[in-house]
Please model this.
Amino acid sequence: MIEHLNELEMRALLDLVSVAESLKIPLMLVGANARRLAFDIPFGFPSPRTTEDWDFAARMPNWDVFARIYQQAVDGPFRPGDSAHRIIHKDTGILVDLVPFGPLTGTHEKIHWPQSQQVMSVLGFEDACDSCVHEKLPNGMEIGIVTPSLLAVLKMIAYAERGEQFPRDLQDLWFIMERYARPPAHENRAFDELVEHFPDDETYYEHLDSLLLGWDIGRKCRPMTLAAIQPIIKELSSEESPRIEALLSRTGDEEDREVQRRKITSEFGWLQTGIALATTASLTL
Model:
């Protein structure tokens, strides 16, 4: 059950889910608050940043369905925001972004907003929805929450598309990568599921976070999603990549930064190793 919210957050969330429930539209929480509820709070990780935005995605067959949920929201406890996918909770001022995906995207995993014609990628949302966890609210209604592994995928896709002007995407990804195998259930899985792939190499113990994250990504993502994240992983595995600068500490001397750079690029290499192991294993099943 979702309990770790303040009163204002819970009020806004209940009002949104009530609107969606009345139209039989299941919601999936994505973004920083999804990581906060599914990863940071349960396992005691300090959130590196806070956000007042709540990002939701919902599988919808067409734009008429999106229009209905949007209109019902702004006719009730929400008001329109500054974009077609944003609404603002009237009582609390909390911002909610609602992005549709599914059949209305066509074959390229992109949506074209009808009025503005803005194009937005929703690649990875289908994968995320298929493996999301469902949590109950105090009133008995449910929402889906993207898993940390699929949130990492969404962050990679977002960073590949938005680039250096949004370093927080890369920083959020690294936050998950550094800690992924620490929850007890993940740590046990890391040994149980990966040890057979390294019978004569115990060095993989030092890279369990990245390796297990890659393993889960490789098992849960479709080929087209995996293909989309390969270039960014390859680039971040190179010590020559300027993108790594966003992850380096601002303290310490140049030697310290080079040590950090080598560690970070090495971990992205192990992330790719985990993905490759998972995809190879799936082909042999």
User: Anything to note?
Assistant: Residues 234 and 269 are 8 Å apart (CA to CA). The beta strands are 28-30, 53-59, 78-80, 86-89, 95-101, 110-112, 119-121, 133-136, 142-145.
